[in-house]
């Protein structure tokens, strides 16, 4: 980050520079694709504890994501406390009942049918960890003076991608959960008004009997998600 008295450009040589030949890069790209192709969103979690160090290292990876003006406008609240997870589940399910009772609209509910979701969210207490992601709408210097953050949704979204990839790489499963609204998370986790909760990640090992909806295995082919201009 930067400080109020150090707002100047100071270039340094590129650290950690690694030069690879085309063949090595292709192998690395294919290997990472194959790793991420084995990522699945699950709702059935093994309750076996996951070491805190794994969560911390994964969040540290998320903190290496690029961000607008390098302001790093994110905060991650990692929760393993059973009582707090139960509180979050209870409050999230209140919002979910409203959602499925008509708040979402018929079209949205219809779109969710192949996923098999409802207002019952046991993963919020079954998963050993919940990670609540907050977006920092603005920052503050030590004297209380505010400064603007830039490209906040884009920056936090990239960091979430880093985090999910890091957790998967560590052998953990992740479920993204977005109750709407999520305002209850701010006081529950004692976060400031400058931050907006945007996502809950349920994190742990997949249960032995875990299932995924068949439709989740249907991915768009490359031809539908990419255009190349050589």
From TrEMBL:
Keyword hit for Oxidoreductase: yes
CDD domains according to UniProt: iodotyrosine_dehalogenase
Keywords: Flavoprotein, FMN, Oxidoreductase
Pfam families cross-referenced by the UniProt entry: Nitroreductase
InterPro entries cross-referenced by the UniProt entry: Nitroreductase (IPR029479), Nitroreductase-like (IPR000415), Nitroreductase/BluB (IPR050627)
Gene Ontology MF terms in the entry: oxidoreductase activity
Protein name as catalogued: Nitroreductase
Originating organism: Shimia abyssi
Lineage: Bacteria, Pseudomonadati, Pseudomonadota, Alphaproteobacteria, Rhodobacterales
């Amino acid at each position: 980050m930067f400080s109020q008295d150090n707002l100047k450009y100071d270039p340094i040589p590129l650290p950690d520079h690694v030069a690879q030949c085309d063949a090595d890069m292709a192998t690395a790209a294919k290997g990472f694709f194959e790793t991420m192709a084995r990522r699945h969103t699950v709702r059935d979690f093994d309750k076996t504890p996951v070491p805190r160090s794994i969560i911390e290292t994964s969040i540290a990876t998320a903190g290496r994501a690029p961000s607008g003006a390098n302001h790093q406008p994110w905060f991650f609240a990692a929760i393993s406390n059973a009582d707090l997870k139960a509180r979050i589940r209870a409050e999230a399910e209140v919002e979910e009942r409203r959602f499925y009772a008509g708040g979402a609209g018929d079209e949205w509910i219809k779109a969710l049918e192949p996923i098999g979701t409802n207002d019952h969210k046991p993963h919020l207490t079954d998963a050993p960890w919940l990670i609540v992601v907050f977006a920092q709408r603005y920052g503050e210097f030590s004297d209380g003076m505010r400064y603007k953050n830039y490209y906040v949704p884009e920056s936090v979204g990239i960091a979430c991608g880093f985090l999910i990839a890091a957790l998967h790489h560590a052998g953990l499963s992740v479920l993204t959960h977005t109750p709407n609204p999520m305002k209850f998370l701010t006081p529950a986790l004692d976060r400031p008004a400058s931050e907006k909760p945007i996502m809950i990640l349920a994190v742990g090992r997949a249960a032995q009997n875990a299932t995924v909806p068949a439709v989740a295995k249907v991915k768009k082919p490359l031809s539908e998600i990419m255009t190349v201009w050589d």
